[in-house]
Design a protein that fits this description.
The chain is mostly helical. It contains 13 helices and 2 strands; from the N terminus they run E-E-H-H-H-H-H-H-H-H-H-H-H-H-H. 73% of the residues lie in helices and 1% in strands. The longest helix is centred in the N-terminal third of the chain and has 31 residues. The radius of gyration is 19 Å and the shape is globular.
């Protein structure tokens, strides 16, 4: 890949490569999230009804509009791969924040909002990596987001990811440590592991501790472990449920790719010096 010099000095080829890797990990994470969520809209997931009810929308309106929302989400997921623009990334971030907020609005609690950090962090991190640009550039396809990102953009993007990863871990930990959600114990039981209330709470507190650690640690091993943990635990959805639950796993793509993208951003930042 060609390398250019900036006002901060020459940039090594490996630095650009690391930022490009982060870009693609984030784009793939966005695509997984939106395509997985969109599939549930096409399936007309009954679990979406409380979100409509929170605004007084009747089931007769909710059912036929679910596939439209699903198609909207799938289109956005595909666009993140083939035509990323600042306007697209901003809308994806706002949409993810809105759908996450629907959960406490519908009475499901704030842990649910925090746990969706893997949904809203990747598009916002990509936007931070791309920078604001000019007003006219917001609708144009962004070329080489990672390749042209400067050190400040990398730092902003890394901060967004840290906050998002910490949020998803703390939120998920809250499910176990404070709410003792029984479906989590059912997930472990599906692979032959009996998890009682005390063990479930311990897992929750461990996830909360990991979330706090992500905010302050520069350990790439920790981030890799977080990604592996999320892949393993979210795979329990289809293992413990129905084949359709594979979309629960796909929808959480940001949980897996965001920590890996942060590893790549840390490598890019380190290569450019302090």
């Amino acid at each position: 890949m060609p390398v250019t010099a900036s006002s901060r000095g020459a940039v090594a080829e490996t630095d650009w490569d690391a930022a490009v890797v982060a870009e693609w990990l984030l784009r793939i994470g966005c695509a997984w999230c939106f395509i997985g969520h969109g599939a549930w809209g096409l399936y007309q997931k009954e679990g979406w009804l409380p979100f409509y009810h929170a605004f007084g929308i009747a089931d007769s309106v909710a059912w036929p509009t679910m596939p439209l929302i699903g198609l909207h989400d799938i289109a956005l997921g595909i666009a993140a791969l083939v035509y990323p623009s600042r306007a697209l990334l901003a809308w994806m971030g706002v949409w993810c924040l809105f759908t996450a907020l629907l959960r406490p609005i519908a009475g499901m609690g704030w842990w649910e909002f925090l746990e969706r950090g893997g949904n809203y962090a990747p598009p916002l991190a990509l936007l931070a990596l791309a920078g604001t640009g000019s007003r006219q550039s917001w609708w144009a396809r962004i070329e080489q987001i990672g390749a042209v990102a400067d050190r400040r953009a990398i730092e902003r993007s890394a901060l967004v990811l840290r906050l998002g990863i910490a949020s998803l871990l703390i939120g998920h930990g809250g499910f176990a440590a404070f709410e003792a959600k029984q479906y989590l114990a059912g997930h472990w039981a599906a692979v032959g592991i009996d998890v009682g209330p005390s063990a479930l709470a311990a897992i929750g507190w461990a996830e909360i501790a990991a979330g706090v650690a992500v905010l302050f640690s520069r350990s790439t091993l920790l981030l890799a472990a977080v990604s592996a943990w999320k892949v393993a635990t979210e795979l329990l959805y289809p293992i413990a449920g129905q084949p359709m639950d594979v979309f629960e796993f796909i929808e959480r793509g940001g949980d897996y790719f965001a920590p890996l993208a942060l590893i790549a951003l840390l490598a890019a930042k380190q290569g450019r010096g302090s």
